[in-house]
Please model this.
Amino acid sequence: MTDGSEGSSDARRRVSNGAVVDRGLMDQVATELSALTGAAAQVEPLASGVSSANLYCRSGGHEFVARIELFRSLADLECDFAYAESAARHGVNAIPLPVWIGHVGRAPVSIRPWITGAQADVAEMTPALAYLAGRQLAFVHGARVPTGRAWFYEEPLADPTGLRLPDRPLVETALRNCVALPREGVMVHTDYRASNWVVSESGLHVLDWEKAAPGPRLFDLGLAAFHFAAWPGPAWRDLVQRFLDGYTSVYGAQRFGEVVDAIRTAGSVFYLVDAEIFGRTRDAEVASPIDRRHAEYFLRYCEPAMNCLVERLPALTRRA
Model:
């Protein structure tokens, strides 16, 4: 498994969100890469996320990944790399800078070097890797913040009751969980979890900088810890602890009670934002493709993760 994606067959033409990568678009990406390297390029689809499609590319003896933005602009894509570059200067193993960025047809596309490694996986997560992840997040929080981007969770964190929420069993619980957090503004990743890490011989690489922005440090720490607290099986306690140990080894000691508040609040706001999208999509006669993908993601991950948080909060609170 490499660069967070896997497989090598015709099945790779179908990405994880169910869309099929357009052959013409793939050929155009191959043409751009060939012009860059001076050699023929081979392009294959990879598993993709909610808002992008990814391609594995080979040309001139080198490997690359092309990211095609489905809903965002070229300026958004350029901002991703500005954040990743700033984080890398502060010690983060971020994604390599692109060798090409521009439009292919009407779609914003970046082509960057491939990272050889393995995507962090539920079955393979270890306390040692959780510790390393904590250290990397601390380095993110110490990096200079580029200009040009607002933080994704600003409004829902300020007033989660302002969301148009569906009638779901966990909604009221999530609203009660939210407390005020210190508003210390630093560089935050906002989607820091195992599916966005690649582990290689040189360490843990942090992918997907599309939600990086200036934001409250404790929310980012809490949201990352929330994903560990929702980890399947009994190992979640050790993973949360080692993740926080790694973080404090760089950033300094944290008050555990404050961290628990951050986990409770960040996890709940994360759930509520996608609950709103789920409700809007369920009730709409016609929903946008990105809303439909978010609604599927809500049922597949957000709701089960919130259930885990509710079940495990007492254990975290006792520790605090």
Observations:
- Strands lie at 41-46, 52-59, 62-69, 100-104, 107-113, 118-119, 185-188, 197-200, 203-206, 213-216.
- DSSP finds nine helices and ten strands in the chain.
